[in-house]
Amino acid sequence: MKSGRLPLIKSSIFSSSPNHRSFLIPLNTTVSTNHQNYLSNPTSTTFSIAIQHFINSDTPFHGQKIHAHIIKSGFSPNTNISIKLLILHLKTGCLRYATQMFDELPQHTLSAYNYLIGGYLKNGNVQESLGLVRRMVDSGEKPDGFTFSMILKASACGSSTVTLPRFLGRMAHALMVKLDVEPDEVLYTALVDSYVKSGKVQYARTVFDMMLEKNVVCSTALITGYMNNGSVEEAENVFNKTVEKDIVVFNAMIEGYSKSVETANKGLQIFVEMQRLNFRPNISTFVSLIGACSVLSVVEIGQQVQGQLMKTESFMDIKIASALVDMHAKCGRIEDARRVFDYMPEKNVFTWTSMIDGYGKNGNPIKALELFYVMQECCVEPNDVTFLSALSACGHAGLLAKGREIFESMERDYSIKPKMEHYACMVDLLGRAGRLDLAWELVMGMPEKPNSDVWAAFLSSCRLHGDVQMASIAANELFKLNADSRPGAFVALSNTLAAAGKWDGVSDLREMMKAFRLPLGSALRVFIPPYLHSRHNRLDCRVGVDLHLPVLLVRNNHSRVCTLFDQGSRSGHEVVHL
Questions:
Q1: Burial, 393: exposed, middle or buried (Cβ in 10 Å; 0-12, 13-18, 19+)?
Q2: In degrees to the nearest 10, what's the CA dihedral of 160, 165, 166, 169?
Q3: From the centroid of its chain, how far is CA 460?
Q4: 18: helix, coil or strand?
Q5: What's the CA dihedral at 74, 75, 76, 80 to 10 degrees?
Q6: Which residues make Cβ contacts (< 8 Å) with residue 28, sequence separation at least 6?
Q7: Cα(2)–Cα(197) distance, rounded to whole angstroms?
Q8: Are the C-beta atoms of residues 13 and 46 closer than 8 Å to each other?
Q9: Minimum mean pLDDT among 28-42, 337-351, 383-397, 553-567: which range?
Q10: How far apart are alpha carbons 437 and 427 in whole angstroms?
């Protein structure tokens, strides 16, 4: 190696400390008892041991002084030392110098390629790592399973800060097949995990079925993928066929079940079964279990879990405490949620968001907004869900100016681009305030095409203020989007026309509804009068095949009301006008 290469290392290291040579002899090393002799007559062995020492240490950057000494002394390192220096620079994050060491190798071995590819991937340089793979193939060197497992791991762990090729996992898999790389257990697991995390569960299942011996890690990844896709039966099938179950696979089932009110009870049953088999629950288990209690609104079971946790050191774990705050808030016990919240020694953005959302959903939007600003004073940055909760609170409190200020601050102060949910919330806020003109401007100025939630919010605002013309536009957009939006849009527009006395329009709309033959005849729906709480005095209604001729089976002691709200509707529009 020529003297003068790596100038930054030479200049910075040799000027940093007059005692830099002390780093040349690592602790617990008996290379030479004569320090001066070691410096004047170093060997490949002593250099190799010294470099390896710093690779294994917590301060690898000190090992760069050895590299500087090699350059200054004119020592010509062999391949083994060069690769160790490459590893050393990768560990310190100096990709520039690691690449230089790689380029100066007399022969680029598979291990050298893998080290550098791994270093690039670790630092988010995915494109450069793929370029190295292509360079490796072009040079006649064949990538192995470890090469591809690193790439697949990068594809599975991609974040918003790293731009990945759209089909990175599939590209890697295709190249594996082309190069006839024989997958081992590690590579199969990486493939399954990559496909699951990219939403390609069927591809993951195909790879999973190819495995001769299916490990629990693959089973867990596939179960998670199926649960995220709502394919509960498929997840149960994989779980039942998993022979050697561990706590992680049980946790995957409990977490998956806890996402839906229809399956949350099964999550509780799995927890009981897990304990019967002497599996000790961990933090993830309790977080998922509390989530199931939250979905089912069974606060009594949740309190039993909390009581059990209070006897352990895990009680104040930030994940568990945040889950408890969320559970109490969703079960309507906002005071209990606040007690847990105040007791927590540290809080993250999810804890704050759960508490803010809890206040908003439990009829205290002012308190929610106060906490939103306290959160920022505590130097905790809100995320997109926090902003959604704050905007919702503004809507319920009728704080138009405050809502607009919060909405505008998302991208301006926190670089968070509003999603469809945020736009729908703002349209609803503007509509409640009677500013349909501003709501229309917001919809028309959206960077992306509005979805059904945005148009449904605008239609609801038009109905509220009796604006037939704008309601017709919003309903027409909903008709065009998807069939699921049509029933609510038809009924909301019909009610708007009826309220304005446009009976001819109502008749025309009913004829359209007949033509569409809306498929609601088989659905059992629960409706509630607008002034009653959702948990009391329910009206069980079976809607007829034609929505304009509802067959109502009403069991209620209250006087007849003119409007019923569909409890299953996300948009909250009334679906029957009596």
A1: buried
A2: -100
A3: 31
A4: coil
A5: -150
A6: none
A7: 47
A8: no
A9: 553-567
A10: 10
Report yes or no: 317 and 308 within 8 Å, Cβ to Cβ: no
225, 204 Cβ separation under 8 angstroms: yes
| Residue 239 pLDDT level (bands cut at 50, 70, 90) | very high
Both tokens of 367, joined, read 């308190």
* Dihedral sign, Cα of residue 22, residue 23, residue 29, residue 30: negative
Q: Which residue in this structure is represented by tokens 């598979």?
A: 110
Would you call 163 exposed, middle or buried from its count of C-beta atoms within 10 A (0-12, 13-18, 19+)? exposed
3-class SS at 446? coil
Give yes or no for a contact between 457 and 490, defined as CB atoms under 8 angstroms apart.
no
pLDDT tens digits for 275-306? 999 999 999 999 999 999 999 989 899 999 89
Partnered with residue 539 across adjacent β-strands are: 527
d(CA 209, CA 48): 45
Binned at pLDDT 50, 70 and 90, residue 542 comes out as: very low
- Per-residue burial over 296-331, b = 16 or more CB atoms within 10 Å of its CB, e = otherwise: bebbeebbebbeebeeeebbebebbbbbbbbbbbbb
Q: What average pLDDT does the chain have?
A: 78
Residue 493, amino acid:
L
pLDDT digits (tens, 9 = 90+) for 374-402: 999 999 999 999 999 999 999 989 999 99
Provide the token pair at 430.
Answer: 């503007």
User: What DSSP state is assigned to residue 94?
Assistant: -
Contacts of 417 by beta carbon, 8 Å cutoff, 6+ apart: 410, 411
Instruction: Quote the CA–CA distance of 208 and 348 in Å, as a whole number.
Output: 37
Could you tell me if 117 and 146 are in contact, meaning their C-beta atoms sit under 8 angstroms apart? no
Residues 6 or more apart in contact with residue 448 via CB below 8 angstroms: 420
Length reported for the chain: 578
Q: Whole-angstrom Cα distance, residue 259 to residue 230?
A: 9
In whole angstroms, give the CA distance from residue 344 to residue 352. 11
Strand partners, 527: 539, 566
User: For the chain, percent helix, then strand, then coil, each to nearest 5?
Assistant: 65, 5, 30
Would you state the structure tokens that stand for residue 104, as one six-digit string?
Answer: 């100066």
Instruction: Write the Ramachandran bin of 28: left for phi over 0, alpha for psi from -120 to 50, otherwise beta.
Output: left
Helix axes 349-361, 365-377, angle to 10 degrees: 160
Q: Cα 169–172–176 angle (5° rounding)?
A: 140
Judge residue 557's burial from the number of C-beta atoms within 10 Å of its C-beta, 0-12 exposed, 13-18 middle, 19 or more buried. exposed
**What single DSSP character describes residue 557?**
S
Environment class of 172 (CB within 10 Å of its CB; exposed 0-12, middle 13-18, buried 19+): buried
DSSP β-bridge partners for residue 563: 577
Q: Which residue reads 């399954």 in tokens?
A: 192
**Residues 133 and 120: beta-carbon distance below 8 Å:** no
